[in-house]
Amino acid sequence: MGSFHFFLLLLTFFSLFVHTSPSPIIQAAIDQGTKAYYNCTRNSTFAAYSSYRSNVKTLLDFLSSNSTNNARFYNTTVSSKDTVYGSFLCRIDTTPKHCQECVTQAAKLISSLCKNATEAIVWYQVCYVRYSDRRFFSTVEESPKLSFMNDKDYVGNVGLFNNIVWDMMNDLRSEAASAANKSADKSVNIIDNEKVYGYAWCLPYLSKENCSWCLSDAIAEIPTGCCRGKSGGTIIYPSCGVRYESYQFHKAQIRGGSVTPPPLPSSPSPFASPVGNDSTTLETLRFELAKIEAATNRFAKENMIGKGGFGEVYRGILLDGQEIAVKRLTGSSRQGAVEFKNEVQVIAKLQHRNLVRLLGFCLEDDEKILIYEYVPNKSLDYFLLDAKKRRLLSWSERQKIIIGIARGILYLHEDSCLKIIHRDLKPSNVLLDSNMIPKISDFGMARIVAADQIEESTGRIVGTYGYMSPEYAMHGQFSVKSDVFSFGVMVLEIINGKRKGCSSESDGIDDIRRHAWTKWTEQTPLELLDPNIGGPYSGEEVIKCIHIGLLCVQEDPNDRPTMATVVFYLNSPSINLPPPREPGYFKRDRIQDNKTTHKELDNISDSINGISLTNFFPR
Fold first, then answer.
1. Is 343 inside any structural domain?
2. Measuring CA to CA, which residue among 268, 275, 232 is closest to residue 18?
3. Is-catalytic flag, 511?
4. Cα torsion at 74, 80, 84, 90 (round to 10°)?
5. Catalytic one of 185, 217, 424, 483
6. Residue 572 needs a FRET pair 20 to 30 A away by CA distance; which of 152, 163, 327, 533 works?
7. CA-closest candidate to residue 459, choices 480, 477, 479, 447
8. Residue 154 lies in a domain
9. What is the pLDDT of residue 310?
């Protein structure tokens, strides 16, 4: 994916940037004569008057002429031997005359600056023009990204401010995804006479689901890679963006008035630290024990929603009505207070749409407590283990869950501040929110409980039988490919509808990998699909997911794809996948005979928030 793709909608947000500092990841030059940014990629050696260059000229003429038709957004294609795709977008508050003048000038500039580029973009303050030999219409693109933060720290209760911003932005996500113009703005009271203002947008042609997905990932960047503790910030993806400020910055937020857009910056400014003082940030995560006891009715039995090898999980309700999940760690946590707080601070920064969010901690007396967001629809195994509840999972829901889990694992493996290997991925560690969006839980427990210091191998096997890769179960060797294996098992289970080894039905399925491989080799893969699945489904999509699942559970870790490749496969509408090899098998008694096997986690009951182990590596 070319670096220029993220410039698609920057003009919309540049019109809003006030008192912000951009990230230095901008990969574009600035034409000092016109003060316009441009980017030329994938330069070609073809002659200046080749058929492609001729098509580019024709396309730019089309864009210029159509900008006179009061159109704010327009895309077109010039098809022949060398097809070229192009579009322009004008800022929403730009007059038709200014839009036309801007597009015409941008088309001239892009033609002169990017003579040998197969992809290029140029944008001014009020418009952009782009072209490519690749069809980019209607796609969701999240990388590269651009981040802006307000230079000023928020002055006041930072924890309260952060929580309000988070909730407001998630409300905006839902509103923008459902809106006809794919945008929304609102303001929320912090205290008397103090508000925070927010805005979210997507490309107009995105579906509700894709807009919501894109915005969720953008919002997850706010407390981590951008703006935690800052009074304002912006995240821009190629397909969507979000912004919040402690002042009115969007024209819809000012009755009878408008916001004068600032000029484009002449050059990127240094990107400030994503968070303020670490000690201050840590204090915003601290909960008083008295508040936790009040929220859980002093850890009442009726509020217990799960029990794992390292503690009990309770549902709680704070005084402001917010529901939380409270993990009360047992003596298995052997860390001291300083180490415990440091690990909490690290894990709190790991935020993604498909991860359960850590809200804070409590460290008083002998208590070590973690506070998470409460996820209402319990865990994935809650649905898979119940034949009636499985009927609630249509194919579209199952596919959404598979893709969401994949994105969450990819974030842990490659996009978070640490390289994280979960090591206990299973349906009970995948929670489902009110919109059935999957959220991976317990991705930071190795840091919290300090169970063992592991780099690349261990003699102390932790995890759950059936989901452990052969090399890990038998030899203690693990890597990101161990998580890929676990993901593959879950994919096959989600498709089949029954957890491995837990079926109470008489179909004799004991090993989902063996069963899936048999159906694959018999060329009857659709027989793996849950027969009770409701609603329509695409047989081609089901087979593709089975194919991906089998690629992930291959015996040799080197044969398994990375999670980045898996996400690419899942998001590609038509792609030729490599043929899978037979999955690796191993008998349970071989694991139990291994004296170094750690059995504690193998007996953990499946619950809403069971605790398991994860491993972290520095980047």
1. no
2. 232
3. no
4. -20
5. 424
6. 533
7. 477
8. yes
9. 67
CA dist., res. 346 & res. 386, Å (int): 37
What is the C-alpha radius of gyration for the chain, rounded to an integer number of angstroms?
Answer: 26
Domain boundary among 78, 105, 132: 132
Burial class (CB in 10 A: 0-12, 13-18, 19+), 189: exposed
What are the backbone dihedrals phi and psi of residue 576, each rounded to the nearest 5 degrees, phi first? -85, 115
120 plus 226 within the same structural domain: no
Q: Is 60 exposed, middle or buried (0-12, 13-18, 19+ CB in 10 A)?
A: buried
Return the SS3 of 544. helix
Helix or strand (DSSP H, E) at 22: strand 20-22
CATH number assigned to the domain comprising residue 194:
3.30.430.20
Q: Of 104, 132, 160, which marks where a domain is finished?
A: 132
Write out pLDDT tens, residues 465-522: 788 888 877 777 778 898 999 999 999 999 998 654 444 433 333 489 999 999 999 9
Residues 452, 587, single domain; the answer is yes
Secondary element (H or E) of residue 130: strand 127-132
Residue 394: inside a domain: yes
Q: H/E element holding 172?
A: helix 158-178
Note whether 574 and 439 are same-domain residues. Answer: yes
Token representation of residue 142: 């999240």
Amino acid at position 151, single letter:
D
Question: What's the pTM?
Answer: 0.56
CB 32 within 8 A of CB 265: no
Specify which residues 362 forms β-bridges with. Answer: 369
pLDDT at 261 over 50: no
Examine the domain organization and report whether 401 and 461 are in the same domain.
yes
Contact 500, 466 (CB under 8 A): yes
CA-nearest of 473, 483, 449 to 613 is 449
Asked if residue 356 lies in contact with residue 440, where contact means CB atoms within 8 angstroms, the answer is: yes
Question: 183 lies in a domain?
Answer: yes
**What is the C-alpha separation between 103 and 64, in angstroms, rounded?**
6
Average per-residue pLDDT in the chain? 75
CA angle at 508 for the pair 503 and 509, rounded to the nearest 5°: 60
Tens digit of each residue's pLDDT (9 = 90 or more) over 217-246:
888 778 655 676 788 988 877 778 888 998
Same domain for 71 and 151, yes or no, is no
Q: Identify the weakest region by mean pLDDT among 97-101, 277-281, 425-429, 587-591.
A: 587-591
Q: 295-304: buried (b, 16+ CB within 10 Å) or exposed (e) per residue?
A: bbeebeeebb
Closest CA to 426 of 273, 551, 613: 613
Residues 121 and 161 in one domain: no
Q: What is the mean pLDDT of residues 47-68?
A: 82
Domain count across the chain: 3
CA 377 vs CA 12, 428, 590: distances in Å: 37, 12, 36
Alpha-carbon span 446 to 615, nearest angstrom: 6
Looking at the fold, whether 116 and 27 belong to one and the same domain comes out as yes
Backbone φ and ψ for 479, nearest 5 degrees, come out as -165, -175
Lowest mean pLDDT among 101-115, 341-355, 401-415: 341-355
Same domain flag for 510 and 428: yes
**Using CB atoms within 10 A of its CB, is residue 61 exposed (0-12), middle (13-18) or buried (19+)?**
middle
Q: Which domain holds residue 154?
A: 146-258+270-280
Name residue, tokens 């193998």.
602
| 511-552: pLDDT as tens digits | 899 999 999 999 999 999 998 887 889 999 999 999 999 999
Statement: residue 252 has pLDDT above 60: no
